[in-house]
Design a protein that fits this description.
CATH topology of the largest domain: Rossmann fold
CATH class of the largest domain: Alpha Beta
Radius of gyration: 21 Å
Number of domains: 3
Length: about 325
Amino acid sequence: MTGGEPFEAVVRRVDARGCEVVPASGGDPVFARVRGRLHRFSRAERTPLAPGDRVLVAESDGGASVRSVLPRRSRFLRESSSGARPQVLAANLDLVAAVLPCAEPEPSPRLADRILVAAASEGVEGAVLLTKADLAPPEVVADLEALYARAGVRAIAVSVPGERGLSRAADLLRGRTSVLVGPSGAGKTTLLRRLLGPAGDDLRVGPVNPKTGKGRHTTTAARLLPFPGGGWTVDTAGVRTLALGGLRPADVALHFPDLAGVGPCRFADCSHTVEPGCALEAAAGAGRVDPRRLESCRAIIRQIAEDESRRRGW
């Protein structure tokens, strides 16, 4: 192997030794080392690279190595509420799909809403994939679809065994760089195996624990996978919580499409939790917005405040 001009590549997977990259111009994957100076410049994050990052790679007789990371246009963080450095799950995204199971485990729109808020805060489009639609009563699925339709969020009910919604989900993901995020056992990997075809054959799936209702982490490292017909999709490990330490409580409602245009409140800095004259409270009471959406917004605001207090040791 001889030296030459660095070439641009896309990071597919990161581990302790380095990363697997694919040349942007096409070709086979290449393993590249990550030099120490990149770690020194990533003190704000747990790792210097994530799937989806675009990098410059140099080759020499000693092998390939990452020279530099090109500026990101977006990122999706899994941030620790304990104050540890956040982990970038994926970079340079066009779409974040919150995976919300209709059954097994119990549907949790609040986690899906946190995922959508995290995406919106990065300027990335969000959508909801309602998995396991065949295991839930039709009225439960219809209620979740209507909840997000009224909120202006695209939601697709899918069932792999029932062949429901698969073509719509494929159309949503095709031609983009996307990440699927949701709790363990939500059916992310099962859905990806079906949508990706041969590219997803080595993805592992596991059962939901019947006693706890929680899934097992079958995905241990995030990977960028080629999507049939164009684009890339990131398969990630399940998440149960998602901290939003970089977002101000006062800005949370701005990232709920159905709540952002409601107002004004009596107080300009209304937190929409306890203040009198809250326009969102009045709208929920009058049926103009779904009370579940307001409570989800409030839960995120409370969690941000609690996380900040914990980090400051209050």
